[in-house]
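Technical annex, item 7. During the second reporting period the consortium partners agreed on a shared format for inverse folding records so that results from different sites could be compared directly. Each record opens with the tokenized structure and is followed by the designed sequence. A conforming record, contributed by the partner at site C, is shown below for reference.
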């Protein structure tokens, strides 16, 4: 239950608040500034109503002390009617809002709901932010390939630049990881990082998520809701899968980045956008613009600073490092101590095209670590479907490469047989240490035929 502290020497004011809110909230009573500060130092308080004119220390001095103790605590000043100079000074000192005497019950009710919603969102953001900072060691961009080094250079150039950044790449390439790197390595790192996935949400839900709403804005809106643009504060808002954003929301978003302000649903007050905006999508926005699914003017606004993430198949040299990183990370999570992945399995992973990119690789490594009986991961630990897909993909790629190299030739099947036969003999020769008897038996041919195919007996060992 939220706690509201009333600091006022007027018994009728204290009684009014108690009658109004004691069923929903915990009401704490301080009859002067000294009592109020004492309660604040010993109780968890979510909202303060503070009278400007009290015996002893006046309300503005108490406001200064409260803000030193609890900078984020909303304080609503109670002032005399028409005392605008006091209101201006109070707001400049950090007061959340003000109410005038005689008290307007409807206005007080709205302020209470709005202020407590702000507190609730602030606590949520702080909790998320603390968790993000705690887990920042896992926000590492892995990759020494040339293409990933270019991505890292781009992040370095843009990290403290407040322009909108658009991140493009297939699903699973690490777009949110790049957004995290831009935020947590820059000047906004101690402010909130709020991520919103625009995919899979209905138009009305996404509208509400981004912009929030005022109380009574629509049926069922019993209290104010702060949207993600507002919750991000001076931090970063990351709009993932912006290519799936409905056209009506695109129009509202365009106004946000053009005017640097927005309104809550049902609200008239313009709210300043303070957060940096980062967008991302796995769609090709140029094609979406041509198809009429994405606003051309919005596309040009977000496409100023662009980072393109390569698919994993175009940066295969990073796979071994990624494997080692994920094994270490997952070992900590499941309290196991795995050795490095065997080279045989690494080779299979290197020859796979990874349609799900880095996310797919991480998922498979996680599955293998969980299935492993001991500290060594073997082929047995690979999911059956994974192992099957890896084998089929390798053979398919050999055939694809063969066809591209020889598509202008005739007699493709004999040529393919010849190539596969050579690869198979080389493989068996290594495994059997060039023992021709064992090789001939495994291949199902005679030693004479094998000798002809190898065209040499120089390495026979038996």
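Designed sequence (site C submission):
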């Amino acid at each position: 239950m939220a706690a509201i502290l009333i600091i006022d020497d007027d018994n009728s004011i204290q009684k009014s608040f108690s009658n109004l809110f004691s069923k929903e909230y915990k009401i704490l009573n301080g009859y002067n500034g000294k009592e109020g500060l004492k309660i604040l130092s010993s109780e968890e308080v979510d909202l303060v109503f503070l009278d400007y004119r009290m015996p002893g220390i006046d309300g503005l001095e108490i406001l200064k002390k409260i803000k030193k103790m609890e900078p984020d605590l909303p304080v609503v000043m109670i002032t005399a009617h028409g005392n605008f100079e006091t209101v201006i000074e109070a707001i400049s000192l950090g007061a959340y809002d003000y109410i005038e005497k005689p008290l307007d019950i409807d206005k007080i009710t709205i302020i209470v709901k709005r202020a407590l919603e702000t507190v609730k969102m602030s606590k949520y953001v702080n909790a998320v932010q603390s968790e993000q900072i705690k887990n920042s060691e896992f926000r590492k961009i892995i990759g020494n390939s040339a293409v990933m080094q270019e991505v890292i250079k781009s992040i370095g150039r843009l990290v403290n630049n407040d322009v909108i950044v658009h991140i493009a790449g297939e699903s699973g390439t690490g777009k949110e990881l790049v957004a995290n790197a831009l935020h947590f390595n820059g000047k906004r790192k101690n402010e909130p990082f709020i991520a919103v996935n625009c995919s899979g949400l209905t138009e009305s839900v996404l509208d509400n998520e981004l912009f929030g709403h005022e109380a009574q804005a629509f049926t069922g809106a019993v209290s104010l809701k702060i949207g993600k643009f507002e919750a991000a504060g001076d931090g970063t808002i990351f709009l993932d899968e912006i290519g799936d954003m409905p056209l009506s929301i695109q129009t509202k978003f365009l106004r946000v980045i053009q005017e640097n302000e927005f309104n809550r649903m049902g609200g008239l007050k313009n709210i300043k956008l303070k957060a940096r905006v980062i967008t991302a999508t796995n769609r090709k926005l140029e094609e979406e613009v041509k198809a009429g699914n994405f606003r051309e003017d919005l596309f040009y606004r977000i496409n100023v600073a662009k980072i393109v993430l390569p698919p994993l198949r175009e940066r295969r040299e990073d796979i071994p490092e990624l494997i080692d990183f994920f094994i270490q990370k997952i070992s900590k999570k499941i309290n196991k101590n795995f050795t490095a992945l065997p080279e045989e399995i690494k080779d299979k992973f290197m020859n796979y095209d990874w349609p799900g990119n880095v996310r797919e690789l991480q998922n498979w490594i996680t599955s293998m670590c969980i299935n492993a009986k001991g500290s060594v991961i073997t082929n047995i630990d690979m999911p059956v479907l994974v192992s099957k897909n890896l084998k089929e993909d390798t053979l398919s790629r050999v055939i694809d490469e063969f066809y591209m190299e020889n598509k202008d030739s005739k007699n493709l099947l004999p040529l393919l047989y010849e190539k596969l036969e050579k690869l198979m003999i080389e493989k068996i020769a290594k495994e059997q240490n060039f023992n021709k008897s064992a090789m001939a038996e495994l291949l199902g041919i005679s030693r004479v035929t094998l000798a002809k195919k190898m065209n040499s007996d120089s390495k026979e060992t038996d």
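The radius of gyration is 32 Å. The chain has 19 helices and 14 strands. All partners now use this format for quarterly exchanges.
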